[in-house]
Specification:
This protein is an alpha/beta fold. Helices cover 47% and strands 15% of the residues. The protein folds into 2 domains: 204 residues, Glycogen Phosphorylase B (Rossmann fold); 171 residues, Glycogen Phosphorylase B (Rossmann fold, 3-Layer(aba) Sandwich), CATH 3.40.50. Helix 3 crosses helix 4, helix 10 runs parallel beside helix 11 and helix 10 crosses helix 15. The radius of gyration is 21 Å and the shape is globular.
């Protein structure tokens, strides 16, 4: 069986969800999964580069303006002229791709290709079934399109939001947000502590700036940690931003606390396993990974819009604290490090919210859309009834 995953590189989350689904599809079905960068391949590489740059810069330098844009687009109807124009971007090339490659099913991990798939179906130009994975813990209208056969969502709030906007209940499934298998495997924390040169008598604080270093105020976070009056150990992941990595190294050089500074890493599951607290900006994938690892979170300056929604979800359920200014961050750290029972309660909340089976469940829904059953690598597929959400 063949799966096509329509993704993008606007931030690291969509890509990581696509990679997790692709790996699980191949493991469950023995078939092939192709991840396609929708904007680079079907729209234009220059358009992709310009819009990605604009997105990153707007989040970094004008987050309030981005938040306003997110709010304004939150109520666009799927049949509006604006949305239909967005859906036409890349439509002809996607149509040719579907005809040439003939996938059994399409999985959209970004909202734009989901709209384009829906419009192709409305026009009678494709019958390939489509499943959309919503990659944040909030409902936004640009994800909602009438001819998407199946939605896989991270929580019941998003499911209810889709139903409230006209999506049939049978087309929605609360699966959790797909993450890589490695986050669900048990790890030897003591061995990893030794690997990273960490000691057991001081809490480990992990700071994740995001793949493209969009955590606002990383400098603030590092300054607070570097001058903190209680013992701690810092792990700071700067993503692809080499300049930020150099700045963090300089700012932590004179600290009485030990720090380790990383660029982009592919062993986040190990860093989370040795950490007692994660300071991050509330990206949907990072949040989901931390929940599975039962790692309490301190959210600092989330991106206005979707990440503010992710933050509210975590705060309301006791899995995180939030801070907007350095003084708030310092106070929250003091409260947590003086109250081990608070850490324990946050761990329990994270465990309750975690969906370690999310990726497997999403792939089961994808297989069901093909009308076949996964028999494992190298074995034939059989007919299977659809999964009831």
């Amino acid at each position: 069986m063949r799966l096509s995953i329509l993704s993008c590189n606007y931030g690291g989350g969509h890509k990581r969800v696509g990679e997790a689904v692709a790996a699980e599809w191949e493991a469950q079905t023995g078939g092939r999964a192709e991840i396609v960068d929708y904007f680079a391949r079907f729209v234009h590489p220059v358009f992709d580069a310009v819009t990605k740059f604009s997105y990153i810069q707007s989040v970094r330098r004008a987050p309030m303006m981005y938040g306003m844009f997110y709010k304004v687009t939150g109520d666009i109807r799927p049949d509006s002229l604006v949305q239909r124009a967005i859906n036409r971007m890349g439509m002809e090339r996607l149509d040719r791709y579907l005809g040439d490659e003939r996938p059994d099913v399409v999985c959209c991990v970004h909202c734009t290709p989901a709209g384009t798939m829906s419009d192709l179906k409305i026009a009678g130009r494709t019958a390939v079934p489509c499943l959309t994975v919503i990659t944040d813990y909030v409902t936004h209208s640009q994800w909602i399109h009438p001819r998407v056969e199946q939605y896989c969502v991270p929580n019941a709030l998003v499911r209810d939001g889709l139903i409230g906007r006209g999506i049939a209940p049978a087309s929605t499934a609360v699966t959790g947000l797909p993450i890589e298998r490695k986050f669900t495997r048990p790890l030897d924390r003591r061995a990893l502590m030794a690997k990273f040169g960490l000691v057991p008598d001081a809490p480990v604080v992990l700071v994740m700036a995001g793949a493209y270093a969009m955590l606002g105020g990383v400098g603030d976070v590092v300054r607070v940690l570097a001058r903190f009056p209680r013992p701690l150990q810092g792990l700071v992941v700067c993503g692809y931003d080499r300049r930020l990595e150099e700045q963090v190294r300089a700012r932590t050089a004179g600290s009485p606390h030990p720090f380790q500074v990383f660029g982009y890493v592919d062993n986040v599951e190990e860093l989370m396993a040795v950490s007692d607290l994660l300071i991050t900006k509330a990206g949907g994938v990072t949040v989901s990974e931390a929940l599975v690892k039962r790692l309490p979170m301190l959210i600092y300056r989330p991106i206005p819009g979707q990440e503010e929604g992710n933050t509210r979800f975590l705060l309301d359920r006791g899995a995180a604290l939030a801070a907007k200014e350095p003084a708030d961050l310092h106070a929250a750290l003091e409260d947590l490090l003086h109250a081990p029972e608070r850490f324990a309660a946050m761990k329990r909340a994270a465990q309750h919210l975690a969906r370690p089976d999310a990726t497997s469940t999403v792939v089961q829904h994808l297989v069901a859309l093909t009308g076949r059953r996964a028999e494992g690598p190298g074995e034939p597929a059989s007919v299977v009834p659809s999964i009831t959400p």
